[in-house]
Write a structure and sequence with these properties.
- The chain is an alpha+beta fold.
- It has one domain: Mannose-Binding Protein A, subunit A (Mannose-Binding Protein A, Chain A).
- The chain has three helices and eleven strands.
């Protein structure tokens, strides 16, 4: 493997992986409170997004505070081109889900329960058991609040590396 500007290149497969250095985040990544973030605008299911991140030695974003949630939305999602309907295109997958136990949300990369949540009013859909069963993955809305959505939905995604 060769090292080149914060990336490791596997010469056999030609794949580039991000490597954080003591100098901060790599090219096209943004740093916030010692975490590096990347917004991938490719649309993918939650599982595809998770695997994409893992193949780059990163994970879907885990949001630890309202400040972080607001920063992510403001930095990556809140654009002049966003439609006014909050659940439309200006959204991104996070690592949050309740795939293991319905109604008990956790971060995919961490075995710990969520210590913080920032749900959009009326979310998660746990109040409606019929909807709740099919909505297991969390996306971040352009206002920094969260929504639960079917994991099969195609969304852009934000991933991070610490």
């Amino acid at each position: 493997m060769q090292t080149q500007q914060n990336f490791l290149t596997d010469s056999e497969e030609g794949i580039m992986y991000y490597q954080k250095t003591e100098k901060g985040c790599g090219s096209q990544w943004l740093e916030y409170r010692n975490h590096c973030y990347f917004h991938n605008q490719m649309k993918a299911t939650w599982t595809e997004a998770k695997l994409w991140c893992e193949s780059r030695y990163a994970h879907l974003v885990e949001i630890e505070s309202k400040e972080e949630s607001d920063w992510l939305a403001r930095t990556f999602l809140l654009k002049d081109t966003c439609p006014s309907f909050i659940f439309d295109t200006s959204v991104a997958w996070t690592g949050g889900n309740d795939l293991v136990i319905e109604g008990q949300y956790q971060w995919n990369d961490s075995p710990l329960a969520m210590n913080f949540s920032n749900w959009f009013p009326g979310e998660p859909s746990a109040g409606d058991p019929v909807k709740a069963i099919s909505k297991d993955c969390i996306d971040l809305l352009k206002n920094g609040e969260w929504n639960d959505r079917p994991c099969s939905f195609l969304n852009p995604f934000i991933y991070e590396m610490t």
